[in-house]
């Protein structure tokens, strides 16, 4: 609450008129592209503030900021990247703004379900695709899931880590507009199961219609939690956008896109 009071005070001090003259630069996780584009479009229409966006794996987006990119807000698929920016003096405020769940997107041949989840992932016939740990929080959440599976199936972590094929999130081959490396990996037979965020289910099924969507069982659930890093609290335009993301309207938009909002009232 203290941080929100600071942000609101910033808006009052600097005023909407000054904010309208600014451009806000927002970097976001790839999984946020659709929902944040929607929120940003509505925000710009109402405020007159231009917002420039760029999306990609959260770890790589954080590294761009560390290497000198001038960014007002980082919307990350984890809390670790925003907290690191704040610790290093590159962010003035950090807040969690939504949650997600981890899902497995599986072709029917994988015969994957919640009841046989760990058993099937460990089966040699299952070709498992993941995001890249450290570069992409989706990979970090998946590796944490491997650890939880290992607690119930000793030795599972080594097997799962060895078989996991890192399809997205690496820095060596950035994804170009219009490319879908996950759909390509399914089509080429490289994988028959892909770990990802449940909010992306509609996109994955549109690209590969036969996919089953299997939520990670509660025993192996590892998050995810999304964090915002605000570079400066004296940037009224950026503060206004951050508040739009945290507002009930913004949070409701996250809900419509399959995320779990953290800032909605229990009653209308």
TrEMBL record:
InterPro entries: ModA/WtpA. Keywords: Signal. One of its GO terms (molecular function) is molybdate ion binding. GO terms for biological process: molybdate ion transport. Residues 1-21 form the signal peptide. It comes from the Bacteria. This is Molybdate transporter substrate-binding protein.
